[in-house]
Structures are given as structure tokens and as C-alpha cells.
Amino acid sequence: MRETLLALQVGAWLLPAMVLWPVVAAALVRAVGRDPGTEEVPAGWRDARALTVGALAVEVLLGAALWILFDPAQSGWQARVDLPWIPELGAALSLGVDGLSLPLVVMAVTVVPLVLLGAWNNVRTRTPAFGALLLLLTSGVVGALVALDLLAFYVAWELILVPMYFLVGVWALAGESRVALRYVLFTLIGSLLMLVAILALWSAGGGTSFHLDHLLAVPLPPRTQLWLFGAFFAAFAVKSALVPFHSWFPPAQAAAPTVVGVVLGFKVGGYALLRFAIPLFPAAALQPTVRVAILGLAVVTVLYGALLAMAQGELRRVVAYSSISHLGFIMLGGFALTPEAVSGAVVAMVHSGLASAVLLLVAGVLEDRTGTTELGAFGGLASAAPLLSMALVLGMLSTVALPGTLGFVGEFLVLMGSYAQAPALTLTATVGVVLAAVYGLRPLQQLLFGTRSPLVAHGVPDLTRREAGVLTALVVALLWLGVAPAPVLDRMQGAVRQVVEGARFGPNALPAIPTVSETP
Amino acid sequence: MPPTLSALLQAAAPHPLDGTVARWLPVLVLLPLLGAVVNGAVALVRRPSSARHPLVTLVGPGVLLAAFALALQLFAAMRGAGTSLTAPFLVGGDVPWIRAGGLTLSFALQLDQLSMVMVLVITGVGSLIHLYSVGYMRDDAGYARYFAYLNLFVACMLVLVLGASYPLLFVGWEGVGLASYLLIGFWFTDPANARAGQKAFVVNRIGDAGFLAAMALLWSSAGTLDFAGVPTWLAAQGNAPVVTAVALLLLLACAGKSAQLPLYLWLPDAMAGPTPVSALIHAATMVTAGVYLVARSGALFAAAPVASLAVAAVGALTALYAATIALRQWDIKRVLAYSTVSQLGYMFIGVGVGAYTAGVFHLVTHAFFKALLFLGAGSVIHAMHHAYHHAHREDDPQDLRNMGGLGRHLPITATMMTVATLAIAGVPPLAGFFSKDEILASTLARAHGTPLASASLLGIPGSVVLQGVYAVGLITALLTAVYMTRMLVYAFFGANRSGEEARAALHEGSPIMVAPVVVLGVLTLAGGWLNLPALLPLGPVGVLDQWLAPVTGAASRQLGGAAHLPHDTEVILVGLAVAVALLGMGLGVWLTRHPVLPKAQAPEDRSLLARAYDADRWAERFVVAPVRRLAERVLADAVERGIDGAASASGRGVVAAARAAGRRLQDGDVGRYTWWLAGGAVVLVAILVVG
After folding, report:
1. How far is the alpha carbon of A381 from chain B, nearest alpha carbon, in Å?
2. B4 or A144, which is more confident?
3. What is the DSSP string of A417-429?
4. How far is the C-alpha of A132 from the C-alpha of A141, rounded, in Å?
5. Could you give the C-alpha distances from B551 to B301, B420, B546, B555, in angstroms and in order?
6. What percent of chain B is helix, strand and coil (3-state, nearest 5)?
7. Cis link prior to A520 (omega < 30° from 0)?
8. Are A239 and A187 in contact (CB under 8 A)?
9. How far apart are CA A303 and CA A430, in angstroms?
10. How far apart (Å, rounded) are the C-alpha atoms in residues B438 and B548?
11. Minimal Cα–Cα distance from B455 to chain A, Å?
12. What is the DSSP secondary-structure string of B272-328?
């Protein structure tokens, strides 16, 4: 299989295709697609949802090819492509993957069509536009994950923002479209700061190239690093909803259509920290005060997200805050900067996407059947809708990091790898493990157990075959990767080592990484 | 860095068990797992009722019996290998699980003498309880779901005792917690049951956080999480504080799983599950996992005498504390639940003072007689339930005040329960007498001139701690005899208080429920022969001690030296123990001299002991409520709103600033910004495409 792909020189066009195909497909879906018809007048093949899923299925195949093509033994960029773009500025369309981005790319392009398929009736109006925007969004996400040129990364980063604004704003739950504005405002401020920092970095590097490899070698005084790191960090912290920059996230995820909510929860911001902010500005990221502050914020995020998840009365908000808590673990692992912890952080990013997909799909099904996702409205679903209940239970078990699920792999590696760097903070983070049990089981108790509430007694149809199929695929992925994460972990080791060693020994590194031991 | 497991595997000399049935060790785990999958599938397909589904009846207990048969084969192979078995047999070290950076975890299972004992108890007692369940659950609509969970439990429990590393043990550790959660809340339409399951899971998670922290410390300090790597690390570390820290964190984990102070609160509520579940999970196996973990980590605890003393002290305090509560419980299952907490305390004393054999010995005998007591109680509840159903009455079938004189209606159950009561009370020559006596004698023997005695816990010298532990253990033995006799008399003797109509319908359960109880009765009678003391010439001496010596012998010697009591002292101690048991039973009979009224007519028992010291209320007031208030009032209502407000204000500030700039482009309309951005993106794409 791999040999065939190599012989066809697939690597030469795979990544551009993954970025550009959704854009082309978006135009097609917009032009050809139709809203779902009625019983009498079905939309047939022109149903925009079907077209979108079909277009995304192509993306899945490309993702699979990328996975197969990837050589685990090799470190450095793979499937690398450099196309001229704005030669006057030294900007090129440089794309490539390594073990850090590969799992995230494959996860992203797989989850989006699955969730769209699973939440089939979630969006029934203006579906051609919805499908087109979703495809553009996918292109943006993939682009941000595979861009090696910082200007290209910036464009992709903003390309996430624009379709997202409309996807949340237009198709949000009634009366909630304001959250879209907030989302844009928050992330825009962050990303404009980042743009300035990118330009500053570019000019410090001689103004000849935006390529990451080039900029990594640009020597920067620690003070400059601090400013630039601050700008990057602001962008990524807001985007990934680090406490206290998170307040846009729960309302947006709760109001957005299911598939959009899932993409909102992708930890692209966490990835970007590991890919750009830490390697480019190690002396700033690992400067003791900065590091303690960020690790502290990470642990605060773990606990704050968990406590807030405990206090929510609505399922999507529980999921959103649990996602914030997970981000805390990701940040802890990322800034602990040991191979184990960074691997754990990347696994936790993959997990977050999959687990949120399961839980938001279940929430979407409940919304679809009953018009609400308020926990208090339910009770006794376990007997009324056993398949749905099982999906919810398994998704939640992975969310609370039960061993044997993917959630555990990430959290475990983060905790093991972080202790040596920040013992007190890591021990504090383990409290989040206890709180997770509370926020994870509470919705199960309220939704599934007890006597049937009037709403449930009225009848809640169980999963349809399509929903069951999609949820099965996602849950099996969570369990399978929980038991056999080695293929994913093996592929990321080279890249993880590069990040860790680059930050320790690179041209801009501090002489030694301080251990955060004397934290209060 | 200590050698990794795979390196050890490659370097290992040929093992005596190579080529024997031992290579099928993974099958032991896979059998019940398969059962869980099959029964789970039946449960999903056969809705709404899977009661008495023949496939489930075949597969559910079938996989357990098969596993037990395999366990016996493994045992025979180990016996055959004899004294050459000094290292654990490892299999599956080449199946990778998690590997990142320097951390490499595999699905390696290990079989050694300690694991073997646990496996025999789990599959043996487990088989009996699965068979019993066929009778107990036969009319339940969730029959298949029940066996799916129960099989899942056994699979996880086997992973727990066979895993060759702390993380794999942890897989089983949290897996049994999940099964326990599902089974406590098995009858989930009553929210109280589901809440009890949730409480169990959350309280256990406090311990589990300790387990994770212990692993983090161990990993960062030792660079290994395999059991095989720990001794190498200890040899290099000596008595460094980190060893004690790891041991104390493991103690926290054990206190959660094995229901010790202060984390025992979940176990009494766990009785909401079906009674065979209480027998298997919340008496015989899962709750002993903490005892197993301490014994498994013997080398580590031996290097940390302070932590060992802490284990013993926690055990002693818990034993006494729970025994006092058991004195005044009216729900038959709650008496047994507090009794279990108390007996687990004994086991903690045993493994705490480094008498690992004694602790494991009591674990085994307790598995016999406590499983018997729970299954007997299950038969009683089953009979009472049906009798009330027959009489069309809604009454509490678990309350001792509604029982009385049941011996006439359930003679076999009553006989077996009496045997078990004598055993737990410590009457010779029943199983409990030998194991409890060995724990107490070992405690006293180590009180002088041992490393344990010269350590100190919170400033108290170890010898004083150990003497205190012994005294508390002896008092607890007295209380045990009292509350068990009280329970037995109220349930089976005297006049019946069930009401005439119900009484007529009281009878023994089906043979499949009676037979396992009888088998456990025989084991309760004979269990003491597993490890007879030299003092009494009844048979071979210290069989279990010799069996476990390759695993725990070194650690035991390290903590206790050559602890030995003079012969005369031993005789006195045995006499004291027997006297205490008989005195306690007499007190128990005396306690029940006044007739009690049926529950419906009796005034509510508001004594402090009946309310279990109000511990649940205190925990609610001082732990649960503050956390909830913090989450809901402080964070959700105040802080989150504050952050939100600040964010909105700064957002508005930016917009206002943009407006103030007064440029046509930047008129503060974010919608327009995005258009500019989108336009910019399009232009960029266009530039890209064109050139």
C-alpha cells in the first residue's frame, strides 16, 4: 500500500490537495447543493448534506493516505511541499506534517464528516451554505495544522475564524447568535497580535522567509522573545480557551450546531503552542516566572474547568467545561516539556476531539428528540434509550480518563511526565481526576437513572441506525486507541523529541530548563 | 536506570513454568471478558427482559467455572515446579500499551504465588457466587446485563492481581471500580441506588488520585513502573523520603478501595446493589485489593517502616470504629458491611506490621466466611421478599427487627450462617480463628526489637503503636463476637416477627442458591488448615506462609526481623483470644435478651451508633457542600460572571477605541471586519493561484 502511494508520488500533492479540495468542494456544494426536500420532493443526490459528507469523505481518504505514507522511523517534515506564493516577501506555501500534526490532521478530517453524518438532521436550513462553510472551515483547520510557513499559517488561522463566525452566528440556537460575535472579537484580538509578532519575527529574520525552519534559527534576545511569545500566547490561549480567556467558549459550543461545536473544541491553539510558540521563543516560554505562571494557569484551568463542569445544568456546557479542564492538562504537559508529557498533551488533543464528538452528538440527539439538553428535564433514559445511554456512558468514561480509554493515555502521560518538572503543581492537578468523576457521573445520574421524567415517559426514540453507526465508530476509536495507542505514540516520538530538545538546546534556548519545584 | 521489563524478559533465564499451562495465563482474563461481551450483547438485543435467558445462564457462570478450572491447572503447574519458583512467570511483555519518551508499558501479566492465591479466591468464590446469582437474579429483567457486569468485574479483578506493573494494576483497579459503580446502581430506577454507585466511584477516585500521584513519584524517581524494577530502585534509594511518600500515597489509594478511614463512607451505601454483588465485590474480592496492593508492594513498604506503621494504625482504627457501628445496625446487610470494613482493618494490621502472610491469610478466610454471610443474608432477604410479596405487604425484608426465628424456616442457611458467625467471632478451629490470631500475635511479636518497633509514627514510638494496635485488635475481636451474635440471634432465633401470613411463605431458596452456601460453609470450617500455627498439632504448619515466602518473605523479614513470641506467651494469647470470643458471644446473647418490635412498630433508633456517628452528614457538611458551594456559588455565579463581564467590557473597549479612531474602515462593526478578513483571504488565495 505504502509502496504504491510512494510510487505514485502522492506526497508531492497530498497536502495541497487536503487544503484546497475542501475549498473547491465548497464552491461545488454551494452551487449544486439543495436543501433537504420533503417526503414528496426529495432532494436526492443534490442534498447539500450528502454532497458535503461526500466531499469530506474524499478528505478522509486523503488523510488515510497521509497516515499510510508517513514513515514513523523518520523525523522531520514529511509529505513536504513548497510552492511559491509571494516571493517578494519570502512567503511560500510550505506544507508538511510530522508526528505532532499527523494524528491531529487525521483525527480532524475523520471526525468532521462522522459528526456531520451523525447529526444529520441537526441543520436543515440553508444547508448548501452550511456545507460550503463547513468545508472552508475544514480547509482552515487542516491548513493551520500543516502550514510550515508562518504567513500561510496565519491565513489558515483566520480562515478558521470567518466560516466559524457564520456557522455559529447563522445556525446557532435561537437567540444565541450573539455568541458568534463574541467568538470573533476574542479570537480576532488575539490573532492580530500574533500577526504583528509574525511580521516582527520575519523582519528580525532578515525579511526573506516566513518558513518555520528559517525563523527557528533566527537568534533573538530574551527580551524580544518575551514580547513575541506574549503575542503568540495570547492568540493561542484565547483560541484554545485557557482560563481566564475562556468565557467565549462554553456559550459558543453550547449554541453552535453539533458539528461546529465539535470543531470549536479542537485544540488547534494547543497544537500551535507546541509547534510555534515554544520552539520559536524557548527562552521566554521557559523563563522561570513565565513558566510557573503558565503551568499555574494550566492547573487552574484543570480545576476551574472541572468545578464549573460540576455546576452546569445543561449537557453541552458540561462538555464544554470538561473540554476546558482537559485543555489544562494539555497545557501542563506542553509546558512541562518532557517527552512523556508532550506526547500526553498531543494524545489529549486527539482525545478531546473524539470525546467531544461523542458527547456533543449525544446532546444533539437529545435536542433533536426533545428540544432540550437540560439535565433536570431528563431521568430514566437508561431504559428508554439504551443505545444512546451506552454511547453517553462510554464517551463520559473516556472523558473522565478511565484506564482502557484514550482519555487515560493522555492524562497519564501528562501526569507522569510533568511531575519531575513541576511536582507541586502536578500533584494539585491530580485533584482534577477526582473532580472529573463528579462532573462525569453527575449527568449520567440525572439523564439516565432514576424514574422516567415526564419528558422521557413521553417517549425518546433511541438512536437511529445512522446515529448508532457513527457513535459506534467514535466510541470504538476511543476504546481501541485507549488499549493500543502505540501506533499513534510511536509516530509522534521523533517530533516530540525535536520540540523538547529544540527548546532545550536550540539557538534561543535557556542554558537549562528550570524545574518548578519551589512553587507554593 | 533500572532494567525495563522487556529487557528483563529477554535476559531472563528459562523459567520453570515455561512450556506449561502457564502460557495460557491471558486466557484467564479473556474468558470473563468474553462472557461480558456475550452477555452484554444479549442484554442489548433482548430488551426489555432477559430474565432467565439460557445463553446467559450458560455463559455467565460458565466462563467463571472455566477460569477456575484453568486456575487450578495453573496452581497444579506451580505446585509441580515446587521450590524452583523464585521469580514470577511473565507473559505478554511484548504486547505494547503506552510508550512515549522513556516510558514503556506493556500488557505483561505475571503469575507468582501471591497472584495465584488471589486468582484462586477470585475465580473460586466467584464461581460460587455466579452460580448463586443464577437463582437469585432469575426473575430480574436485567439478568443478562447483571451477568455482563459481573463478568466484567471478574476480568478487571484478574487484571488487577495479574498485572506486572503499577499502571496495568491500575487498569484493573479502576475497572473493578467501574463494575462496582454499575452493579451498585444496578437497579437504577431508584435514584438512591444510582447515587450510591456514584458515591462509591467518586470516593474511590480520591484514592485513585493518590495512586496516580504515587506512580508519578515513582516514575520520576525510579524511572520504572514495573514491579520487577522496584527492588533495584529501592536498593539504590535506601530509606529516602520519596520511598515513604510513594508508600503513603499508595496507602491513600488502598484506603479508598478497601474502605478504610476516612474513605470507607462509600461501602455501607454500596449495599444498594444485589446481594451476590455485595458478597463478591464488596466483601470477598474487590475491597481486598488494597491489602493485595500493600502485599504486592511489600518491598516498598518494608523500606518505609513509617508507612507500614501508618497502614497498621489506619487498619486498627478502622477495625474498631466500624465494629462499634455494627453493634447497632438493624439492616442485616449494613451489619455485614460495617463488619467487612472492620475485618479489612484487620487485614491492614496484618500487612501493616509486615505479616504479609497473616494479612493474605485473613483475606482468604474472610473471603470464605464473609461471602457465606452475604449469600446467607441474600437467601434470607430473598425469602423475606417473596414472603412479603406473597402476603401483599410492603415491608423491609432486610431489617433484623422484621426477622426472628428464621432458623425454623431456613434451616440450612441458619446452620451455615452460624458456622460463619463462629468463624468470624474467632472460635477455634474455624477459619477466622487462625487468621485473626496470627495477625494479633504477629503484631505483638513485632512490638520489640524490630525495625518496625524502632520507627516512629507522628512522634509515637513504633513499639507503642504496635502495642496499641494489638490492644485495639483484641477489643475489636470482642466487639466482632458481640455484633455477629446479635445479628445471628435477631435473624434466626427467638420468635418470628414477620407476620403470620408472610411466615407461612418463608422457605429456602432453590438448590442452586443453597449449594454454594454449603460449599462456602465447608471452606469456612476447613480454611484454617491453610496456615496452621506450630502451636497446635492439627496438621501441616504454615503452608500458606511457605507458599508466599518467595514473594513476601524478604519484606516480612526486613520489617519484623526474626520476630518470635515465647511459647508461653503464645499459649496465653491463644487462650485470651478464645476467651474474648466466648465472652463476646455471651455478651451478644445478653444484648438480645429483650424482644424487639417489628420495624413498622418500633420507634426510630436515633442512637449515635445507629446513625453511624453521623459521618455521612459531617462529610456532606464539611467536604461535599463546601466544594459544591465553591463550584456553584463562588465560581459559576461570581467568578465566571466576573470574567465574562471583564471580557465583554474589554471587547466593548476595543470596539469603542476603534470607533474613536473614527476611520471609515474601522467603524467597530465586527461583521465588517470579518468581511475584510475574508476578502483578504480571498485575495491571498487568488495571488497564490495566479502566481
Report:
1. 10
2. A144
3. HHHTT-HHHHHHH
4. 14
5. 13, 30, 10, 8
6. 75, 5, 25
7. no
8. yes
9. 9
10. 15
11. 27
12. GS-HHHHHIIIIISGGGHHHHHHHHTHHHHHT-HHHHHHHHHHHHHHHHHHHHHHTT
Residue showing cell 420507634: B603
d(CA A320, CA A518): 33
- Within 8 A of B181 by CB-CB distance, chain A residues are 441
CB A330 within 8 A of CB A345: yes
B677:A158 CB<8 A: yes
The answer to whether the CB atoms of B212 and A308 lie below 8 A apart is no
pTM of the full predicted structure?
0.93
Query: In this structure, what DSSP letter does residue B624 have?
Result: I
Other C-beta atoms lying within 10 Å of the C-beta of residue A482: 25
CB-CB neighbours of B19 under 10 Å: 10
B208 touches chain A (CB under 8 A): yes
d(CA A319, CA A323): 6
Q: By the 8 A CB rule, do B291 and B548 touch?
A: no
Q: How many CB pairs under 8 A join A and B?
A: 193
Q: Is this prediction's ipTM beyond 0.90?
A: yes
Cβ-contact A258, A115 below 8 angstroms: yes
The answer to whether B160 and B247 are in contact (CB under 8 A) is no
Residue in A419, A481, A488, A497 to test binding to B, most B beta-carbons within 10 Å = A419
Of A155, A182, A338, the CB nearest to B651: A182
Measure the CA–CA gap between A137 and A135, rounded to whole angstroms: 5
Nearest in space to B140 (alpha carbons), one of B80, B56, B69? B56
Exposed, middle or buried, B539 (CB in 10 Å: 0-12/13-18/19+)? exposed
For chain A, say whether B171 makes contact (Cβ under 8 Å). yes
Band (pLDDT 50/70/90 cuts) for residue B426 is very high
Asked if B685's CB is within 8 angstroms of A247's CB, the reply is no
A206 near A215, Cβ under 8 Å?
no
- A168-175 own/partner pairs: CB under 8 Å, 24+ apart: A168/A252, A168/A255, A168/A256, A168/A260, A168/A264, A170/A126, A170/A129, A170/A130, A171/A123, A171/A125, A171/A126, A171/A130, A171/A256, A171/A257, A171/A260, A172/A255, A172/A256, A172/A257, A173/A254, A173/A255
B243-296: per-residue pLDDT in tens? 999 999 999 999 999 999 999 999 999 999 999 999 999 999 999 999 999 999
**What residues of B are in contact with residue A304 (Cβ under 8 Å)?**
635
Min Cα separation B371/chain A (Å): 28
Q: How far apart are CA A273 and CA A281, in angstroms?
A: 10
What are the average pLDDT values for consecutive 10-residue runs of chain A, which has 520 residues?
84 92 92 79 80 95 95 89 89 93 96 94 87 94 95 92 88 74 81 90 89 91 91 92 89 91 93 94 90 95 95 94 96 94 97 96 93 90 92 96 96 96 94 95 93 88 93 96 95 92 80 56
- How far away is chain B from the Cα of A200, in angstroms, using its nearest Cα? 20
Instruction: Tell me the C-alpha distance between B344 and B367, whole Å.
Output: 11
Q: Which positions ≥6 away from B73 have C-beta within 8 Å?
A: B21
* Cα torsion angle, B359, B366, B194, B264, sign: negative
Could you say which of B190, B202, B215 has the minimum Cβ distance to residue A438? B202
Q: What is the pLDDT confidence band of residue B678, given thresholds at 50, 70 and 90?
A: low
| Whether B94 contacts chain A with CB within 8 A | no
- Distance from C-alpha of B44 to C-alpha of B38, rounded to nearest angstrom: 10
Hunting for cell 451523525 — which residue is that?
Answer: A118
Give me the pLDDT at residue B12, please: 57
C-alpha B303/C-alpha B311 separation (Å) is 14
Do the chains contact at A308 and B636, CB–CB below 8 Å?
A: yes
What is the distance between the alpha carbons of residues B390 and B146, in angstroms, rounded to a whole number? 25
